[in-house]
């Protein structure tokens, strides 16, 4: 490749010394004092500053909130319900997602050269992919459990136990790990002209040519993944992992809402059933908001992934610009999704607020218990009151 410097002190190759050329090209590729027209940075500095500050705030809120969720569920016995086990698993997933934020931000600011090696490039994207699968699977399993508990409470009493839920959560994580495995082939450290080529450029100055070594390494989708169709296949798998569960969630919550609405209109239900249904409505309302926030935050992420899988180096500048900014927005929403759940729990669950206050020493009394499933239908039933089914 041939490059012509565009600096005030080096306006053409004839006016440049080899030192100036090498310094310029190093800056050009490695991210400092770059030509604004040919800059390797995908976004303007003000945009990057805004994104970085936003992500930093999300990081602080998300890590604090999810750690608090794990502590609340693990420390207080009456918070260890089957529903909360799923929410705790989702909190672990969200924490792992936040571990992937620093390298993501690094790539926004300086996506080449990638200085952390091929293994780390693959690993952090594998963790991110695995956690996205785990979150959606946990939400789906939790919603199906709520459907059983509300629509078929006696059957749920026999089927849904803490031991089985823990085993199911472990299985869901195993499925997520296996499904994200192809990421180790999908991404890697590539160079400007491909994985097998060198990373040098040839420049001309004062009528002669000279080869200068420039580090063009970049953590991105491999050329093999693009040419073999693996990228398109993984985009399809990712879409299935999102849209199929969303369809299932829509059906499940529609059935739950229909069942609760029909029972609410019945005049001959007892006081215990009325109290149970009121608690179930509170639980379903909270979980429905969590699901809605999840879909709202992750839909742009999957649309952006679809755009990326169907774009190419020969795409028009406008298409490339749209894809880049869709990627930027989806990145912020991706981390917002990982940070927002504890906020929703705190906003919508009095019991969670009470347990969190006690955790920080702001309240001496135990979290409100209410009437639990063990006093009505046995300890393993998850269907009766908010105290036993939700935060």
UniProtKB/TrEMBL annotation:
Keywords of this protein's UniProt record, alphabetized?
Answer: Cell membrane, Disulfide bond, G-protein coupled receptor, Glycoprotein, Membrane, Receptor, Transducer, Transmembrane, Transmembrane helix
Q: Which cell locations does it reside in? A: Cell membrane
So which domain of life are we looking at? Eukaryota
Query: What InterPro entries is this protein classified in?
Result: GHS-R/MTLR, GPCR_Rhodpsn, GPCR_Rhodpsn_7TM
- Which region ranges are annotated with the description Disordered? 366-391
Instruction: Give the Polar residues compositional bias ranges.
Output: 372-391
User: Which biological process, per GO, is one annotated for this protein?
Assistant: hormone-mediated signaling pathway
Which residues belong to any copy of the G-protein coupled receptors family 1 profile domain? 65-345
Q: Which Pfam families match?
A: 7tm_1
Under SUPFAM superfamilies, the record lists: Family A G protein-coupled receptor-like
Protein task: Receptor for ghrelin, coupled to G-alpha-11 proteins. Stimulates growth hormone secretion. Also binds other growth hormone releasing peptides (GHRP) (e.g. Met-enkephalin and GHRP-6) as well as non-peptide, low molecular weight secretagogues (e.g.
Protein's UniProt name? Growth hormone secretagogue receptor type 1
Origin species, per record, is Esox lucius
């Amino acid at each position: 490749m041939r490059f012509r410097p565009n600096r005030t002190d080096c306006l053409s190759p004839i006016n440049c010394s080899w030192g100036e050329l090498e310094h310029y090209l190093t800056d050009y590729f490695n991210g400092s004092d770059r030509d604004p027209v040919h800059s390797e940075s995908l976004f303007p500095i003000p945009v990057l500053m805004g994104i970085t500050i936003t992500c930093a705030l999300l990081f602080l809120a998300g890590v604090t909130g999810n750690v608090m969720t794990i502590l609340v569920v693990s420390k207080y016995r009456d918070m260890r319900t089957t529903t909360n086990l799923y929410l705790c698993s989702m909190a672990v997933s969200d924490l792992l997602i936040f571990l992937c934020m620093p390298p993501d931000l690094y790539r926004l600011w300086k996506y080449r050269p990638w200085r952390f090696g091929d293994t780390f490039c693959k690993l952090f994207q594998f963790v991110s992919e695995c956690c996205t699968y785990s979150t959606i699977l946990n939400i789906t399993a939790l919603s199906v459990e709520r459907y059983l508990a509300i629509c078929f409470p006696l059957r749920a009493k026999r089927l849904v136990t803490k031991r089985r839920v823990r085993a199911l959560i472990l299985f869901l994580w195993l499925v997520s790990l296996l499904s994200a495995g192809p990421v180790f082939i999908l991404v890697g450290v590539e160079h400007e002209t491909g994985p097998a080529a060198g990373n040098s450029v040839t420049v001309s100055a004062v009528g002669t040519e000279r080869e200068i070594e420039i580090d063009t390494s970049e953590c991105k989708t491999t050329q093999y993944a693009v040419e073999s169709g693996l990228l398109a296949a993984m985009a399809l798998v990712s879409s299935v992992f999102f849209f199929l569960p969303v369809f299932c969630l829509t059906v499940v919550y529609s059935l739950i809402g229909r069942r609760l609405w029909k029972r609410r209109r019945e005049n001959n239900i007892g006081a215990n059933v009325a109290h149970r249904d009121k608690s179930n409505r509170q639980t379903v309302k909270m979980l429905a908001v969590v699901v809605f926030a999840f879909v709202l935050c992750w839909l742009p992420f999957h649309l952006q992934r679809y755009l990326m899988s169907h774009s190419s180096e020969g795409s028009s500048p406008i298409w490339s610009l749209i894809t880049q900014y869709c990627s930027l927005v989806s990145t912020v929403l991706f981390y917002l999704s990982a940070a927002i759940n504890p906020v929703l729990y705190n906003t919508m669950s009095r019991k969670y607020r009470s347990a969190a206050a006690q955790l920080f020493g702001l309240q001496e009394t135990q979290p409100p218990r209410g009437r639990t499933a063990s006093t009505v239908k046995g300890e393993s039933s998850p269907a009766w009151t908010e105290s036993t089914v939700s935060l």
